[in-house]
Amino acid sequence: MKIPTPALTVSAVLVAALTAMSSTAAAAPSQRPAAVSAQRPAAPLQAPASALGPQGKVIIDTDMGQLNDDAAAMFMLRNADPRNVLGVTIVAGNTWSEEGTAYALRQLEIVGERRIPVVVGAGEPLNASRAATLPAEEKLFGNVEYMGAFSRKRPESYLKLASTPYGGYPKGRPSREAAADFIVDQVKKNPGEVTLFVLGPATNIALAVKTHPEIVPLVKEVIYMGGAIDIPGNTSPAAEFNWWFDPEAIKMTIRTPFKRQTVVPNDIAERVFYTKKEYDRIVAGPETPLKKMYKDLHGPRFERNPQSSSFVWDALTAGIYLNPAIATKVEERYLDIDDNFGPDYGRAIGYGESRRRSFGDPGNFPAGTQKVRILFDIDRDAFWNLYIDLMRR
Fold this sequence. Notes:
This is Nucleoside hydrolase. By secondary structure, the chain is an alpha/beta fold.
């Protein structure tokens, strides 16, 4: 499926953009399943009377899994006010785009949500040789702890995965539109209202802003889950997974002069723990489709080991959006990404206020870097109260 552009093809635009950067990588055209019929929306749901958060529309760009952190963020935003979720766009990262498409469609169906479109996006990183260089990357720069989709073969279709999704294959179909086009169209239809949640690699957002830069001033905010700012990486010794998977894309995106960019890095994401205490609060009381999903997918782990815990990464982005008071420590820094093939490939590089005071004018930062807001701490009780309330609706 080709993404139309005003004058250039996506491939041409990407090659030009990447050549202008310091990276030696080449751009790759995104791959996606064959076109299928658009999902027909059902009647819109009514928002809960106690819906939280600022007024505004959201697009959830995600490498979706089965009731993983991306799904939790999606359900939080949807349950707070389903009318504000314009769509879920799928990108390769933790899962291949075919897997993410099936998981997003089916999980929304399980909770009775057929209004929100699921839109297929980039199936590969921008760097055409990304997968081919992984063996050398491990030998030269240190062990890669987690490779996400790269650790298994890419499926040929969202209806032909290696294993059947929870609840079976989806009955609905993804939108015919490509994710980058969907993002552009929705931002133009809702100028100044749309917040982009970038919960996986930023490939779809990079495609959108490089092919249609006119949308940049129309975006209300971009909220990322990604990066390791003041700590080591969790995939390579230097880099957090989302930004390691497609460093070229996140560099394009984080350097784009959006009005407001907020980063939720591993610095805080790996200090908030989901335990049996929170699980028990979620599943208590009358069963709902979402509670049953928690019981079926999370319950066995806590039965095997009641002391088990995990991180909630992407759910934090929804938490601070819906209730900004949850954020207790936020710093502004100029942020860049190392996209040179080497031991720091994918590393987030932050330049803080102390550097500004020492070196003077912000022009001393690398050319093109933007000032972003970085979350370093939260009110955990407030976050969990919000998370659990939304999951129980």
